[in-house]
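#structure-requests
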Amino acid sequence: MSIPFWQDSQFYRKQTYLLLLALVLNVIFVYSPTYTYTDNAVSLAEATGGQVLLFQPQATLPETLMLKMMFPLTIITILTVVISIFTFANRTKQVLFGRFAFLMQVACLVLSYLSGDILQSHFTVTSQSVKMSFSYGLIFPVLSLLLIAAAIKLVQRDIKRLKSMDRLR
């Protein structure tokens, strides 16, 4: 007789839930606005609706190159978190994939900050009266970064606990 999936050892571990939540936050980040801006010109506001999304198939601004670089980084982070969830049997690999997801998330945050600066400088150079501001969408990678760090810490604590159990045997 096999045990139900919810009684499997993977679903009893807190780090699995933290990584799942980080995965959900990264998926939400892909479809949430990263920047908002206000403009007096109607054409710019009509082109993007006053928001800059991470996933914009009909991007009109030339500076969305950074945003297009953030999209693959976010997808790589999502895939790495999924791999990290399913490598629960090998905790050292789980820590390795977790650290890689952490680094990709940091790179995504740095690129989002840089792309905001590039967009703001573009509007300043072209002498348009545009006010750029970060939107609520940028809180998701920050929260995901914290969750991934907490999951790595919990996996390392499990490794330490297993090593101490092996010493006792």
